[in-house]
Amino acid sequence: MNSYLEFSRIGKSFGTDDGVFEALTDVSLAVDQGEFVSLIGHSGCGKSTLLNIVAGLEPATTGGAILEGREIREPGPERAVVFQNHALMPWLSCYDNVALAVKAVFGGRRDKADMHDWVMHNLELVEMAHAAQRMPHEVSGGMKQRVGIARCLAMEPKVVLMDEPFGALDALTRAKLQDSLMAIQARLEATVIMITHDVDEAVLLSDRIVMLTNGPSATIGDVVHVDLPRPRSRLELAEDPAFNHCRRRVLDFLYAARVPEPAAGGAPWRDDVGPREAADADGAGREAAAPGDAPRHSGRDRAA
Ligand SMILES: Nc1ncnc2c1ncn2[C@@H]1O[C@H](COP(=O)(O)OP(=O)(O)OP(=O)(O)O)[C@@H](O)[C@H]1O
Ligand SMILES: [Mg+2]
């Protein structure tokens, strides 16, 4: 059966000074149209690499990504990307960064005034309308990230690819944009692949949370289905047992991946945890680190 978006046995190796480095191996996943999938895993496991392959920015070494039956070989306007490092064109104002994308997608179909209103609407959505004429070097990292999100949403893409889109934002802005993203995704029926390090964010937004094992040779270790009805309210879900069950499963996976294990024929295991993960653990790990934890995932079971 053909799925809308398919990761078909994706493997990716990089040539390095020390030889070939296998970042990803055998990553397979079938994504439905309109589905919201989060990718979660420790720093350096290969999340951005995987997203870049789906974006058409990097070729897979083996296998590939297939959208509507066609292999992805290059970037396309139906797939908008929000990058981890808020990649704006430095020579264009915040307004022009969004306008360029809007013209590329809607030019010839919408008139100038309409496109202007649409650019401003999307900048308002991320609370950047007041800084529309500023250059990227004149705004903060979080503001650049918000322009990147506005640019992505303004394209009304079929597939939204987001690499830690809310990582650099304060808690209130983050919550507001998460809610906007859920509303926009529902309206457009867009398919979203989002990388995040934030477990609560993953559970709140996703239909499925795909967890990657540690690299090298990272692959899918487990998948959590989030069967919570939409629209979702973060306040109501805070006490919801199903929400907390999903959250707990993801935390268990991440904590298990921190424990060094003998590599008995499986992927080599690493115990290096980046600062963000340590920060996440401080906030959420007390519960997960308690004695008598639920059985830990080995991280090796394929669940694609
Ligand atoms: N061009 C490259 N050449 C060599 N190695 C690379 C290259 N790009 C990525 N890697 C390596 O591949 C692995 C996966 O990198 P990637 O950026 O995908 O990780 P990530 O999961 O996105 O990490 P983070 O959460 O820190 O953003 C890392 O070990 C990284 O060093
Ligand atoms: Mg990354």
What features would you describe in this structure?
This protein is α/β, with parallel strands linked by helices and about 300 residues long. The protein is globular, with a radius of gyration of 19 Å. The strands form 2 sheets. A 6-stranded mixed β-sheet has the order 6-7-8-3-9-10, with helices on both faces. Strands 2-1-4-5 form a 4-stranded antiparallel β-sheet. About 35% of the residues lie in helices and about 20% in strands. Residues about 265-304 have low confidence and may be disordered. The chain has a domain at about 80-155. α2 (about 95-105) packs across α3 and α6 (about 200-205) crosses α8 (about 240-255). α5 (about 170-190) links the parallel β7 (about 160-165) and β8 (about 190-195). Magnesium ion (MG) binds next to α1.
DSSP, total strands: 10
SSE order: EEEHEEEHHHEHEHEEHHH
As a percent range, the share of helical residues equals 25-40%
Largest sheet: 6 strands, mixed
Q: Outline, from the CA principal axes?
A: globular
What distance lies between the first and last C-alpha atoms, to the nearest angstrom? 15 Å
Unreliable spans are 264-304
What structural category arises from helix and sheet content?
A: alpha/beta
| Distinct ligands, ions and cofactors found in the model | adenosine-5'-triphosphate, magnesium ion
What is the C-alpha radius of gyration, as a whole number of Å? 19 Å
Q: What share of the residues does DSSP label as strand, in percent?
A: 15-25%
Output mean pLDDT.
85
Counting DSSP H or I runs of 4 or more residues, the number of helices is 9
How are strands sequenced across the largest beta sheet? 6-7-8-3-9-10
